[in-house]
Structure formats: structure tokens, C-alpha cells
Amino acid sequence: MKELSYILANKTPKSKIRELFNLASGRSDIISLGIGQPDFKTPYPIIQGNIRALEKNITQYAPTRGNPELLQLLEEKVKRDNNIEVDWNKNIIISNGGSQALTLTFASIFNIGDELILFSPNFISYFYLGYFFGVTVKEIKRKQDFSPDFENLRKIISKKTKAILINSPNNPTGYVFTSKEIKNLIDIVLEFDLYLISDEVYENYIYDEAEHISPASFKDLLERTITINAMSKLYSATGFRLGYVVANEKIIDLMEKYHQYTVAGTNHAAQFGFIEGLKMNKDFFKDIIHNFKERRDFSYKRLKKMGFGVVKPRGAFYIMPSVEEFQITGQEFSERIIKEKGVAIVPGDVFGSFSNNTLRISYATDISLLEEAMNRIEDFTQEL
Ligand SMILES: Cc1ncc(COP(=O)(O)O)c(C=O)c1O
User: Fold this and answer.
1) SS3 call for 96
2) How far is the CA of 102 from the centre of ligand 1 (A)?
3) Angle between the N-to-C axes of helices 97-109 and 249-262, in degrees from 0 to 180, rounded to the nearest 10
4) Is 343 in the pocket of ligand 1 (CB under 6 A)?
5) I need a surface site. Which of 42, 64, 349, 383 has the fewest CB within 10 A?
6) 243 touches ligand 1 (CB under 6 Å)
7) How far apart, in whole angstroms, are the C-alpha atoms of residue 157 and residue 191?
8) Ligand 1: does its nearest atom lie under 6 Å from the Cβ of 229?
9) Is residue 36 within 6 Å of ligand 1 at its C-beta?
10) Distance from the CA of 233 to the center of ligand 1, in angstroms?
11) CA of 124 relative to ligand 1 center, distance in Å
């Protein structure tokens, strides 16, 4: 038989996160701190919107870019919440989740051999999309507190560099860019004539005095910024598989072409659920974010007390402790704690080259389970 895809067969490992969950399968005692999705129920109006659409037999292809009412509501949302001046007819396309928004981005701006720069650790998919599209992904190690290192960024930019990618609030570190950092970044993007990819899927998960700032809200930045977002995290609706991209008209046109020949569009009836979500008063999220902040504070306090090196995250729902104190790698820690104590935790090394000695803990779990998990982690570290 002839060789199968070299990149998929040889360069792309199976998801280590999935492997971890295979280890846990069949065990009812496992507490998972590995989940990348919130634990509250999708608000009912969204579910109703989807059901009503199906009852009306909305089962045909959707318009390739998305339902016009949905695009118009997103125009309003993006103007109101992100301060980005867009026209729904030109600047927005609906995607299959934030994941496919990323695929559309890689497909529409990169050529083989281009370079993409990101701060590491960072979300796993960026690395593999790089492989799939022949893009060299260059990592810049984050500073100790996970903030971006602009000095090294400047040094690493080459003629082949086409874009910088940021994800703020960040998976896996929970880091949120400050407005000064966004401005610094924009200066560099303009100076070197680059594109900026801004993955904002966690924009609503913000704590303390942190603030979410969309780079595309700055003057002339919509031209060169691709903003990625999704309904997945805000509405706890990862299974709806709906996201969107905001970008300049030319880029959205290219994305539409790619859409036409790869997925033809997104789930039509589900878009009516998203429409209802956008019509909802955002107050529904107040209690939820309050709850997540409590979990964040609790996780931080417990981990710090146990002796982990830990930075207090200001966004998303992840915390990334260092296991260096315990003279063990993140990989060993993760493999052993699931077997010995029944806690599923993702090792940090899946998020890039500079996080071997870390873990990624998701605190999107009920506080009582979180407490039990922390007790088990404490037992485990005491036995090390
Ligand atoms: C940073 C980041 N971007 C994009 C995605 C993908 O989002 P979606 O589930 O909407 O495809 C995720 C999912 O965990 C993520 O963490």
C-alpha cells in the first residue's frame, strides 16, 4: 500500500489529552481537571432556538457565510463588546467552532514556508495547524509570570514572518494581556507589516482588574487583524460547534471560498440557537463568572500552599502550576496521579516546548469536586 499522509501519520501525535482520558475510562473514582469546557448548562433559549428551527424544517444548507440575522447580531455584538467597526456583509463569517475559525485563518493567510510567531506555552491546535498548512511555528518563551516577551519577539521576526498569534485570555496559562502589552504588540505588528491573529474565545472569563481588549478595535487594525471567537465557552455550548471570524473583506472572501469546498457551511439549525444566545441579556453570566472566580481563588490558594510554583491567572478557567519543586516532570506527575489518586490533569508539555515542568489544571469543575481533587493532589505531593 502506498504511504498515507506523512504529516498526519508521522508528525501528528494522537491527542495526549485524549490518551489521558483513556487511562481514566472505566474508573468511576476519577475527578477530571482536564476539561476545556465550562460545567454549567447551555442557557435554555439557545436550546429552544435550535429545536424550533428543526421543527420548522430548517435542515437545508445554510448560506455559506452564515445566516444573515446571525451575522447582523454579531455585527452589533462586535461593535458593542469589542469596539470593532465591522459590516456584517463584509467582515464576518460563521465557522464550525473556534477550531475551524483557526483553520480558515491558516488557510486564508499563509503560504507554505511562512512563519508564525506565538508566545509559548499556548493552545495546542496552533502547533498542528502549522504542520497541516506548511507553516513554521516559532515559539517565544513567556516570562516567569506568563507575560509576553517583546524583546525576544523583535529578535525572532524574520523576512518569512507573516503573523503573530495571541490568545488572551489564554489557554493554558490564564494570562490576560494588559492594554500596554496590546499596544506594544500592535506597534510591532505595524512596524514589521505583519498580520495579527487574535483568538478571543475566552473573552468573557476575566477576573480582578483585568480587561479584555480586542486588538482590532485600534485604528486601522481591522485591516490586518483576524479575530477569532466562538459560542463554545460563553454559552457552555462546545457541542454546538459554532464560532466566527472577524477580518477584512478580502480575507473573509477567501475564507468563504475555503468554506465552499471543504465544509459548505455550518449547522443551519444550530445557528438559530446562537441567534437566541446573542439576544440574551448578558446578566445570565454574572453568577457564573462569580462562581468561576471563587474556583480560581480556591485552586490558586490550595496549590500555592502545597508548594507549587503558581501564577494567579486573570482569565479563562485554567491554572498552570510548575512541578519543579517536586523534582518530577509534568508528564510523570500526570501519569502517576491519575493511576494512584484518580485525578486527571493534563501535562504542560502538550502546550509547547517550554512547559515540561508544568501541569494544566482546569477549574471548570464543581467546587466540592475541586476540593476533593486538591486533597488528592496534596496527598500525592506529600508522598513524593
Ligand atoms: C484557545 C482556544 N481557541 C480555540 C478553541 C476551540 O474552540 P471551539 O471549541 O469553539 O472549537 C479552544 C478550545 O478549547 C481554545 O482553548
Assistant:
1) coil
2) 9
3) 110
4) no
5) 383
6) yes
7) 11
8) no
9) yes
10) 8
11) 10
Mean pLDDT, range 177-192, rounded to an integer = 98
C-alpha cell at 1: 500500500
Of 3.90.1150.10, 3.40.640.10, 2.30.42.10, 3.30.210.10, which CATH number belongs to 6-42+284-383? 3.90.1150.10
Question: Which region holds residue 36: left if phi is over 0, alpha if psi is between -120 and 50, else beta?
Answer: alpha
Q: Count of H helices and E strands in the chain?
A: 14, 12
Ligand 1, atom 4: nearest CA belongs to which residue?
Answer: 98
Distance CA 186, CA 195 (A): 10
What is the pLDDT at residue 209? 93
Angle between helix 268-279 and helix 44-55 axes, rounded to 10 deg: 140
238 C-beta closer than 6 A to ligand 1 = yes
3.40.50.2300, 3.40.640.10, 3.60.20.10, 2.40.10.10: which CATH number matches 60-279? 3.40.640.10
Confidence of residue 379 (pLDDT cuts 50, 70, 90): very high
Distance from the alpha carbon of residue 99 to the mean position of ligand 1, in angstroms: 6
- The verdict on the CB of residue 198 being under 6 Å from ligand 1 is no
Does the beta carbon of 230 sit less than 6 angstroms from any atom of ligand 1?
yes
Q: Are 227 and 194 in contact (CB under 8 A)?
A: no
pLDDT of res. 17: 75
pLDDT tens by residue, 59-106: 999 999 999 999 999 999 999 999 999 999 999 999 999 999 999 999
Please tell me the distance between residue 201's alpha carbon and the centre of ligand 1 in angstroms: 6
Cell numbers at residue 204, please? Answer: 468573557
Is the preceding omega at residue 169 within 30 degrees of 0, hence cis? yes
Give the Cα separation of 212 and 214 in Å (integer): 7
What are the residue ranges spanned by the domains of the chain?
Answer: 6-42+284-383, 60-279
Contact 165, 199 (CB under 8 A): yes
Ligand 1 pocket test, pick from 201, 204, 228 with the greatest ligand atom count within 8 Å of Cβ, gives 201
User: Is residue 96 within 6 Å of ligand 1 at its C-beta?
Assistant: no
- Residue whose cell numbers read 508566545: 119
